[in-house]
């Protein structure tokens, strides 16, 4: 297998892994959304403030099994990973229990989700900015994967810092929520956002390949223009040399023509004969 084929296979395998990660994350997030919808009060129920505790319990008893059923339906394609599915199941259960226990605190989990959305939106923007900084520096296609790997490492570092800061803020603001529950929640949400980061990387790769292609075409044009200039200079030199030779030939022909005309004139117009005068003496 050639290197391009190996890279292609690696990319296909990476995309499949990302797809499975996204699907597993959606199993948790989708089930949690089912629970949230089941726990939402309508207008009439919101007016019955004295029945709030009863409402929460009754809704939870109905919404919780519906959420878990949704989860089990989605993970049917991943039954070959029982440990991971059990981990996700426990994570979902912890999220739902936290939501159930925290409904009295001004919808705290919903507020946390908003903060998480904003945090990951900033991470996506920063990832794209970091990738853009590499566009002009890449001179060969072999450097594309190296640049993406470097940006991914930078992203992981930023995510680790932001996660630690976020968990610390949550523990201070909501003492009843444990860091052990928040960290997996963030990691699960990160998995669901992988497509956004992959979109940045795909756009980056497309832009780099475009720039490299344009650069190659520009170099070819430079070589062509240089060759044209050399050909023009060579042609001008040849033209000067040819003109000089023609000039010399014309001079020779002119001298020969003049000599021939002089010779013909001499033949056609010979000088008159000269007679020797006889001397006469008288004795």
Q: Can you tell me about this structure?
A:
The protein has about 280 residues and is mainly alpha-helical. The chain contains 8 helices and no strands. The protein has 2 domains: about 100 residues; about 110 residues, no CATH class. The relative contact order is 0.07. Keywords: Coiled coil.
Oligomer: single chain
Shape: rod-shaped
Beta-strand proportion: under 5%
Structural category: mainly alpha
Overall average residue pLDDT = 81
Report how far the terminal alpha carbons are from each other.
135 Å
Order of helices and strands: HHHHHHHH
Radius of gyration: 46 Å
Number of beta-strand segments: 0
Number of helices: 8
| Number of individual domains | 2
Q: Helicity range of the residues?
A: over 70%
What ranges have pLDDT less than 50 throughout 5 or more consecutive residues? none
The largest sheet, given as strand count, sense and whether it forms a barrel, is: none
Coiled coil: 221-255
Keywords: Coiled coil
